[in-house]
Amino acid sequence: PKTNVVFLKVHKSASSTVMNILFRFGEMHNLTFAFPLNGGSQLFYPRHFMAKFVQGFSPGSAPQFNILCHHMRFLHPEVQRVVPSTAVYFSILRNPVQLMESSFAYYKGTSSFSRARSLEEFLRQPYRFYNPKVADSHYAKNLMTFDFGFNPDGDVTPKRVHLMLKAIEASFDLLLISEYFDESMVLLKETLCWDLDSVVSFPLNIRDSSTRSSLSDSMVEKIKRWNRLDWEIYTHFNKTFWERIDRDIGRERMQQEVRALQRRQAELAEICLQGRGSVAPKEIKDSSLMPLQYGNAKILGYNIKQGLDKKTEHMCRRLVTPELQYSSALYKQQF
Known about the structure:
The chain is mostly helical. It has one domain (5-334): Rossmann fold. Helices cover 45% and strands 5% of the residues. A four-stranded parallel beta sheet has the order 2-1-3-4. Strand 1, helix 1 (15-28) and strand 2 (67-68) form a beta-alpha-beta unit. Helix 1 runs parallel beside helix 14. The longest helix has 22 residues, at 251-272. It is globular, with a radius of gyration of 20 Å. One of its GO terms (cellular component) is Golgi membrane.
């Protein structure tokens, strides 16, 4: 199994679920995490990543961290100072249309979105609300482009798009697609030589459907145009994702692997969860398992079955512990 991993946690792309997978693997194998200074939850995002943002980093020594997975704005040379050169770099992408809809609900309080009554109103005249000079404007346009370290307001020329895609390909070993989450986890498992249980998960940090809004065809087109750089990233790497599956695994074996993953997930839901699925925030009984509620989104969580033996209870709890609580528990263990 590969134990040195860099995960670029792209906002609103099932990345909290992936982070839980990395937390569990790291904890089980006693690996060191590159935590933000003082145990924060982000590596001084939205600034470009710097090695000095990592707790315990010492400039003179060889890279000494196994897993880097907290929110950062990617900057490859600085990341290389923190993790060994053998590290596998990966990230997960999401269709920019759904990403924008999700961001509008989640980051409603930011400067670009707070005055717009609806996403539709924002898209009608985005520059009435959006000012690229304001510090939190990146949530409103080409958010994936921004997280990968590029200028979200850059001109969309073929040359620029080509250079950006080439730069991402040069830095990352694997780009996953959140719409094909199970296939992505199989691909991750194969790439990292991990076992099935290491990539099983329950969806974390997901919204209650009551806070999702449906999008008309014209809005979909407007979102694609507004997030054109993100759209270029997404369509390119969606294509390479399937090419890689065809080359390394094949569709038939992929289907078998996905079924095995889903079976195991259903087994674990049966073992661990009351009601076998997620519940609304007000129904979460254990406050230590309450996910952060943010913006206009209602973030779902889980209840664990009562009366489990200690070992099972520990495993189940790890699967459903929200990112902030898990991160701070691991931080305390490490420091």
